[in-house]
Design a protein that fits this description.
Elements (H helix, E strand, L loop, with lengths): L2 E7 L11 E2 L9 H7 L1 E2 H15 L2 E6 L9 H15 L12 E3 L23 H9 L12 E7 L2 E7 L14 H17 L2 H9 L9 H13 L4 E6 L21 H9 L4 E6 L7 E4 L8 E6 L6 E9 L5 E11 L5 E10 L12 H9 L4 E3 H12 L5 H13 L3 E4 L9 E4 L3
Parallel strand pairs: 1-4, 4-5, 7-8, 8-9, 9-11
Antiparallel strand pairs: 1-12, 2-3, 6-7, 10-11, 12-13, 13-14, 15-17, 16-17
Helix pairs in contact: 3-4, 9-10
The structure holds fe (ii) ion.
Fe (ii) ion binds next to loops.
């Protein structure tokens, strides 16, 4: 079955997470070289796996969800770009053309000192990030001032990736009433004199973080999604989650301020959309259907911290080149230092009103042949052959069956085995 694979990398937080190992290191005086030789280094282990995945399977694009660093540390941000370039050649445009790469800012990438003091230019604070990528010759792949979109295509199978900046409110100052502003400023100023820069950041910067997306970008995004045909799948990338995270969070302005407006705008596109994000350091996969826009379906896929793993999104296409479903391959590092590869989630993308697009003689004949109970692959092949006058070749029947499974018409047992071992059962009358 034809497919396109996109790599989703979550928050990196370099260099804070750079030296994390899997080990119970009680003796802080043990030689580092000895500790390194006997423990699994989290980020190295994951990056090695990403490298193996990008070399061995055909990855057509990479999405990086932001938070390359922590607390607006631009040196850490630069170091992270160097690390990604050394390990994955992310700055090599022959290996990764512009259209295949999308990177968005995270709230931790922003130094609040770079916010415009006159409250006029919301994008001024992103300039150092753009300059960091500029030094590496790749400022074209970071999304800041405007919506970015690109088309990823392989053998006439297409994904449209849109990325937008959900951090335009991050780092901005709250304008407190004048009568308490001066007192508040003097308290914060005196605190920052006695506290470390990290403590000051945590008190002042984190609490005033305000995730939000720009109205103009949302309008452009909706128009862009509505303009693409049904043979492409829109994938949206931003740093912040649209739905609240699954565990309670007590913090000021913790959720995307205009998330309701944003998600109802996405629902108005009346088609399946995949929304990828980071920020929550978790790996939830959730779906939203707006029953006033019944063809809508938004699937939210969160990538975990890079030190915990990464996702590969595999979009599978029907014979008519329409996207059928998305398989999320979850590569996760466990506490024993082992990576698991087989934890996959299957997300169907076809809504009921699109079903007529897939009804051809093979699908109709398959439904007739699967009357009751389980059928073997070869028996079905014979039955369909008798019905339509030509026995389908093995490869065609495999595609038809996998397609029918995505359409929830049949269920295949032992799908990972060779097709001659498949058992097929009809699931809908
Ligand atoms: Fe983060």
């Amino acid at each position: 079955m034809e497919s396109l694979k996109i790599l989703q990398i979550g928050d990196i937080h370099y260099p804070e997470k750079k030296d994390e190992v899997i080990g119970d290191i009680k003796d802080k005086s043990a030689p580092n070289s000895l500790i390194n030789a006997t423990t699994v280094h989290r980020i190295q282990r994951i990056i090695r796996e990403i490298h193996r995945t990008t070399e061995n399977s055909t990855i057509s694009g990479i999405m990086i969800c932001g938070d390359l660093t922590s607390y607006g540390d631009i040196n850490g941000y630069n170091e992270c770009i160097d690390y990604l370039n050394n390990s994955l050649e992310i700055c090599d445009d022959r290996k990764w053309p512009d259209d295949s790469l999308h990177i968005v800012p995270g709230n931790h990438d922003i130094d609040h000192n770079n916010c415009d003091p006159d409250d006029k230019d919301l994008f001024k604070k992103f300039q150092p990030l753009v300059e960091s990528w500029q030094v590496h010759g790749r400022d074209s792949i970071i999304t800041t001032k405007s919506l970015r979109s690109s088309v990823v295509n392989k053998n006439n199978h297409t994904i449209n990736i849109f990325s937008l900046n959900s951090c335009i409110g991050s780092g901005e100052k709250r304008h407190l009433p004048k009568k308490i502003r001066d007192q508040f400023e003097s308290i914060l100023t005196s605190y920052s004199k006695s506290a470390s820069s990290t403590d000051s950041f945590e008190l002042i910067y984190e609490q005033l973080d305000t995730p939000t997306v720009h109205n103009d970008h949302v309008i452009e995004l909706v128009n862009g999604i509505k303009a693409i045909g049904i043979k492409s799948l829109p994938i949206v990338l931003a740093h912040h989650n649209v739905l609240p995270q699954t565990i309670p969070r007590w913090e000021i302005y913790t959720e995307l301020v205009n998330s309701g407006q944003f998600r109802s705008s996405l629902a108005s596109c009346l088609r399946p959309i995949i929304y990828c994000h980071g920020h929550i350091h978790d790996d939830s996969i959730e779906e939203l259907i707006d029953h006033h826009n019944i063809s809508s379906k938004i699937i939210f896929i969160s990538a975990p911290l890079l030190t915990d793993g990464f996702n590969v999104l595999e979009v599978q296409f029907a014979r008519n080149e329409i996207p059928l479903g998305c398989i999320v391959h979850k590569y996760r590092l466990n506490n024993k230092g082992q990576l698991s590869y087989e934890n996959t989630i299957r997300i169907p993308l076809v809504s009921n009103d699109m079903m007529p697009e897939f009804r051809d003689e093979y699908i109709s004949s398959l439904i007739k042949a699967c009357n009751s109970g389980e059928e073997r692959f070869q028996i079905l092949r014979d039955s369909i052959g008798m019905d339509i006058g030509t026995r389908p070749n093995i490869s065609t029947l495999e595609k038809v069956l996998l397609e029918a499974e995505w359409l929830n018409l049949i269920k295949i047992t032992d799908r990972s085995c060779s097709s001659k071992h498949w058992k097929i059962r009809r699931v809908q009358p």
